[in-house]
Amino acid sequence: MSINVLEQYLPERTLPFLKKWFADYVIHIRITKNRDSKLGDYRKLPDKSHQITINSTLEKQLFFFVLTHELAHLIAFEKFNYKISAHGKEWKDTFRNMLRESLDVYSMDLKPIIVKFSENPKANFMASPDLVRYFHVKESNHKSNFIESMSIDDIFLYKNEKYRILEKKKKLYLCINLNNSKKYLFRPLAKVEKIILDEKKQ
Q1: Is the pTM for the entire model greater than 0.85?
Q2: Where is the SprT-like domain (predicted)?
């Protein structure tokens, strides 16, 4: 998809930033139907090009925010040779800089929310109540999370069994199966279903 076609989904004044951020990469943008589980995603393709998908139903400023989030993955991974956590310090720093660089794209009432969010960018959009309220995004019933976006002692479901996160060991997460008390290692990008606080049974 060309930047000119992409422009119809974006707020005004975004093209200079996209041309700068896109400049060194071959990027395929796919506009998808609405997905309850995610707003967008990024992956590197076998031919070394990059693919970003974004939901077509997003309000223009949110569309640009999500696109910036996914581009930050691409840029951080390329800069650090993929030897980083997907939502670790390098991604946070990259996303923060991109948000602040493009701050004038956002409306006056949204700018303070973006500035506050950029202080410690979250992996999951739904973890920012201010942004969720601003865009009136309803939280879906899909509670899928990457383990790396969760905290020690959080409880989650994986293949219909409950686990608790015990500790991070290098790049893996040590978790205990609450059904059989056995311990298992999970990769940071393992997708699990987080059990929210009021569902925890001690």
Answers
A1: no
A2: 28-98
